[in-house]
Specification:
Length: about 300
């Protein structure tokens, strides 16, 4: 099985069996293609015939070429997933990736906004036109629920229950219901009742959030929106749509929310993905202590 067939085999597995999200699928396949390119250049065989020395050398090569800890860790996860599949399906006799270990101790913690910075950002959209109503509703909803940007733009009108104050979010063939705080409910209600009908291109458009053409908002479109309001608010931190997701989780944890409840709202399959926010909160408390305590 050459590299192209290995990658196609892996793609079919991720798509059909794992029901991986579009982002996960893209990232994992990119990682394996890069491994294949490395083996083509530095080894005399391809992905199927790589051994643990080849994989160890590849990870070392990534680190010496300036790849971040997060990138290397994700690549290791992709490689392990591929070789577990090939071993399980008896395409290869032994798994060469078992000794690969992510350097989790130096994993970069996600950047979050302070409560004051969140308030400043959310205040930026001015409800003087349809775009302002829409943008405020999108930002409020993102911070209120912690959903991913892909989940935000995939929302349909039918996923919103304003009376109950919740949205229904679909991801990886799973559904979760997430509550909203009153300001988010109001912003969403104002957008849906006052301006959305003016913005949609077709009367039966199902998308909750639409662009200036009246069609479903794209990831790139929302990225531009959040960058615009970051600049308008004069916030120096580099804000991405995921920054509000991180901030949502960290702020809930700071205020005593149960980590399992946060895991459910975020849609994390593994609690370890949610526990990173505990590390973040502890680090912030330590930083505050070191700055404020007279004997620190």
């Amino acid at each position: 099985m050459d590299n192209a067939k290995c990658i196609a085999y892996f793609e079919e597995y991720l798509t059909e069996e794992k029901k991986a999200s579009a982002n996960t699928l893209s990232s994992y396949l990119r990682d394996i293609r890069q491994l294949g390119a490395y083996l083509d250049e530095h080894a005399e065989h391809g992905i199927q015939d790589a051994d643990e020395n080849d994989l160890g050398a590849y990870i070392a090569w990534m680190k010496t070429n300036g790849k971040s800890v997060a990138t290397v860790s994700r690549s290791i996860a992709s490689i392990k997933s591929l070789y577990q599949l090939l071993t399980l399906r008896q395409v290869i006799p032994e798994n060469p990736s078992t000794k690969l270990v992510s350097d989790k101790n130096t994993q970069k913690l996600p950047q979050i906004l302070t409560s004051q910075e969140v308030e400043l950002l959310l205040e930026q959209p001015e409800c003087v036109d349809a775009k302002g109503y829409r943008d405020r509703a999108m930002l409020e909803l993102l911070y209120a629920t912690g959903i991913r940007v892909t989940e935000l733009i995939d929302l349909n009108v039918s996923d919103v229950n304003l009376a109950a104050g919740v949205i229904r979010c679909h991801s990886r063939n799973k559904e979760r219901v997430i509550p909203m705080y009153p300001a988010a409910i109001k912003a969403l209600s104002d957008y849906m009742n006052l301006v959305r009908q003016q913005m949609i291109a077709l009367p039966d458009e199902p998308s909750l959030f639409v662009n200036v053409s009246g069609e479903r908002m794209s990831r790139q479109g929302f990225w531009k929106i959040i960058k615009y309001y970051q600049k308008k608010a004069n916030i120096e931190k580099d804000i991405t749509p995921h920054t509000l997701r991180h901030s949502f989780a960290a702020h809930l944890l700071e205020n005593g929310a149960d980590i399992h409840a946060i895991q459910e709202m975020l849609g994390h399959a593994d609690i370890s993905s949610t526990q990173v926010y505990s590390q973040l909160v502890k680090k912030q408390l330590k930083d505050v202590y070191n700055k404020a305590h007279p004997r620190a």
